[in-house]
Each structure stands twice: as structure tokens, then as C-alpha cells.
Design a protein that fits this description.
This protein has one domain. The longest helix is centred in the middle third of the chain and has 68 residues. With 82 residues, the chain is an all-alpha fold.
Length: 82
């Protein structure tokens, strides 16, 4: 009787261990998927920021070139007759 009970307990324990390992494996898979998704989104964000910076730099350079191309306006000074 003791052997049967012990064997049954060991079998139950082995089943629980297997279930725990399966659960841990599922958790690790979910964590890996989440990490990969975060890395992908970070890469996309950095690429977008770089593209936006290129566009902003080009716009700034264009504005600078336009200001440089315009002749400076002369400011008339009021004559002071003293």
C-alpha cells in the first residue's frame, strides 16, 4: 500500500512539474514576443525620427538660402537737423 501511495504521489508530482515547465515555457515565449515587438517598434521610431530630421534640416537650409538670396533692406534714418 505504501508503495502504491508513494508511486501515485510521485506521479502526481511529476505531472505538476511538467505543467509548471510548460507554463514557464509559455511565459518565456510571450516575453520573447513582447521584446521582439518592442525592438521592432523602437527601430521604426528611430528610422522615422531620422527621416524627420533630414526633412527638417532640408527645410532649415532652404529657409537659410532664401534669406541669404534676398538683398538686405536699407533702413532710412531720420535726419536730425540740429
Amino acid at each position: 500500500m505504501k508503495n502504491a501511495a508513494k508511486s501515485k504521489a510521485e506521479q502526481k508530482y511529476a505531472e505538476l512539474q511538467k505543467k509548471d515547465m510548460s507554463l514557464l515555457s509559455d511565459i518565456e515565449k510571450a516575453s520573447k514576443v513582447r521584446s521582439e515587438k518592442s525592438a521592432k517598434l523602437r527601430k521604426l521610431r528611430l528610422e522615422k525620427e531620422a527621416a524627420d530630421k533630414v526633412v527638417a534640416d532640408a527645410a532649415a537650409q532652404k529657409a537659410k538660402d532664401e534669406r541669404a538670396a534676398k538683398p538686405a533692406k536699407r533702413v532710412r534714418r531720420a535726419s536730425t537737423a540740429s
